[in-house]
């Protein structure tokens, strides 16, 4: 089974069982965003993690095997048109050059790793409507010659 089919089965099982992504991550003892990404096919899970996830979701061994496979990371171009995902593209198009300048000013010549990386999503109450707070936390990697 390919990872895309496994992800569809995971999403359907999560919905059918009334589970939240946070509840699944808590049951597995893994970070929320990483767990969600792994179950959607973007990270390989250990056999223990995949087995526990499938037991929780009522899915079989073929899904667990798929969850353990090394992914081809990235997003289907059609999914990039989704309004939520597109807004991240838009935000980075507008603010990316400024963020790059600020990283270089603060750290020097290098990049923020997306491999040694954590991301969190939080809700922050605001009188004008709740705010979505997304935190990218990547290790700084300096260019070495």
Automatic annotation (TrEMBL):
EC annotation? 4.2.1.104
Extract the InterPro entries matched here.
Answer: Cyanase, Cyanate_lyase_C, Cyanate_lyase_C_sf, CYNS_N, Lambda_DNA-bd_dom_sf
Q: Which domain of life is it from?
A: Bacteria
What region holds the Cyanate lyase C-terminal domain?
74-145
Catalytic residues identified in the record? 87, 90, 113
Q: Which SMART domains match?
A: Cyanate_lyase (SM01116)
Quickly give the catalysed reaction. Answer: cyanate + hydrogencarbonate + 3 H(+) = NH4(+) + 2 CO2
Q: Which CDD domains match?
A: Cyanase_C
| Pfam families, alphabetized | Cyanate_lyase, CYNS_N
Instruction: Could you list this entry's UniProt keywords, alphabetically sorted.
Output: Lyase
Q: Family per UniProt?
A: Belongs to the cyanase family.
Q: What does this protein do?
A: Catalyzes the reaction of cyanate with bicarbonate to produce ammonia and carbon dioxide.
Matching entries from HAMAP family are given as: Cyanate_hydrat
Q: Which PANTHER family match?
A: CYANATE HYDRATASE
Q: What is this protein called?
A: Cyanate hydratase
User: Origin organism of this chain?
Assistant: Pseudonocardia zijingensis
